[in-house]
TrEMBL record:
<feature type="binding site">
    <location>
        <position position="175"/>
    </location>
    <ligand>
        <name>a divalent metal cation</name>
    </ligand>
</feature>
<comment type="pathway">
    <text>Carbohydrate degradation.</text>
</comment>
<keyword id="KW-0464">Manganese</keyword>
<dbReference type="GO" id="GO:0004750">
    <property type="term" value="F:D-ribulose-phosphate 3-epimerase activity"/>
</dbReference>
<dbReference type="GO" id="GO:0019323">
    <property type="term" value="P:pentose catabolic process"/>
</dbReference>
<feature type="binding site">
    <location>
        <position position="33"/>
    </location>
    <ligand>
        <name>a divalent metal cation</name>
    </ligand>
</feature>
<feature type="binding site">
    <location>
        <position position="177"/>
    </location>
    <ligand>
        <name>substrate</name>
    </ligand>
</feature>
<feature type="binding site">
    <location>
        <position position="66"/>
    </location>
    <ligand>
        <name>a divalent metal cation</name>
    </ligand>
</feature>
<keyword id="KW-0119">Carbohydrate metabolism</keyword>
<feature type="binding site">
    <location>
        <begin position="175"/>
        <end position="177"/>
    </location>
    <ligand>
        <name>substrate</name>
    </ligand>
</feature>
<keyword id="KW-0479">Metal-binding</keyword>
<dbReference type="InterPro" id="IPR000056">
    <property type="entry name" value="Ribul_P_3_epim-like"/>
</dbReference>
<feature type="active site" description="Proton acceptor">
    <location>
        <position position="35"/>
    </location>
</feature>
<comment type="function">
    <text>Catalyzes the reversible epimerization of D-ribulose 5-phosphate to D-xylulose 5-phosphate.</text>
</comment>
<feature type="binding site">
    <location>
        <position position="66"/>
    </location>
    <ligand>
        <name>substrate</name>
    </ligand>
</feature>
<dbReference type="InterPro" id="IPR026019">
    <property type="entry name" value="Ribul_P_3_epim"/>
</dbReference>
<feature type="binding site">
    <location>
        <position position="35"/>
    </location>
    <ligand>
        <name>a divalent metal cation</name>
    </ligand>
</feature>
Length: 223
């Protein structure tokens, strides 16, 4: 499966958002990653529909929306209308996860579920066949620039076992503390979608960093 590099807009320079969107358009990145935080599910507030519409106006690549919010069902249709291509909700935020996944699919988007570092992969067993993407959080959600949690590798193994013979085309995404130092190891472990905020936007040359990430994943042995 193709490796997907998804720079996280959370770490962009909002005073120069159009410039940063253009940089991603011109780079080897595959998706835009759009982190929505509500100050309730996570202890931080990021952005919502106005910024989503601004990104959509200029982005030439798919927008991958990660909802770190409570009651995501209320907002799925509006994010889809605003231009989301995939929508990921948190397992921990959904009382009726199966219903939420169906809502995302009915909106025309790819459906993803994210797991916090403490949430075991096995809890997705009964919905795994319905999913397009599982996001394994490799930091506690809420902030960019945190340290990668090593137990993520064990969770990737658990997820690979869970999808075997059931949903082998599933996109395995990781998010948090991803950079040039660990992207090859993650690709070799079976990850095919990499979210990176700080590593891209704090680099001297973000375009070159994205290209380096891409070539490191492409030289891994898992494709
Ligand atoms: O979802 C997120 C935070 O909840 C961010 O996408 C994630 O932390 C990426 O940031 P970085 O690459 O800087 O660690």
């Amino acid at each position: 499966m193709k490796h997907i590099i998804a720079p996280s807009i959370l770490s962009a320079d909002f005073g120069n958002l159009q410039r940063d969107i253009e940089m991603i358009n011109q780079s080897e990145a595959d998706w835009f990653h759009f982190d929505v935080m509500d100050g309730v599910f996570v202890p931080n507030i990021s952005f919502g529909f106005p910024i989503m519409k601004a990104v959509k106006k200029h982005a030439t690549k798919p927008i991958d929306v990660h909802l770190m919010i409570v009651e995501p069902d209320k907002y799925i249709e509006e994010f889809a209308d605003a231009g989301a291509d995939s929508i990921t909700v948190h397992y921990e935020a959904c009382t009726h996860l199966h219903r939420t996944i169906q809502l995302i699919k009915a909106s025309g988007c790819k459906a993803g579920v994210a797991l916090n570092p403490h949430t075991p992969v096995i809890l997705l067993q009964d919905v795994i066949a319905d999913l397009d993407l599982v996001l394994i959080m490799s930091v506690n959600p809420g902030f960019g620039g945190q340290i990668f949690i090593q137990n993520t590798y064990k969770k990737i193994e658990d997820l690979k076992r869970l999808i075997q013979g059931v949903n082998e085309d599933l996109i395995i995404q990781v998010d948090g503390g991803i950079g040039l130092q660990n992207i090859t190891k993650l690709a070799n472990a079976g990850v095919n979608s990499f979210v990176a905020g700080n590593a891209v936007f704090s680099a001297d040359n973000p375009t070159e960093t994205i290209a380096d990430m891409k070539s490191l994943t492409n030289s891994s042995f898992s494709i």
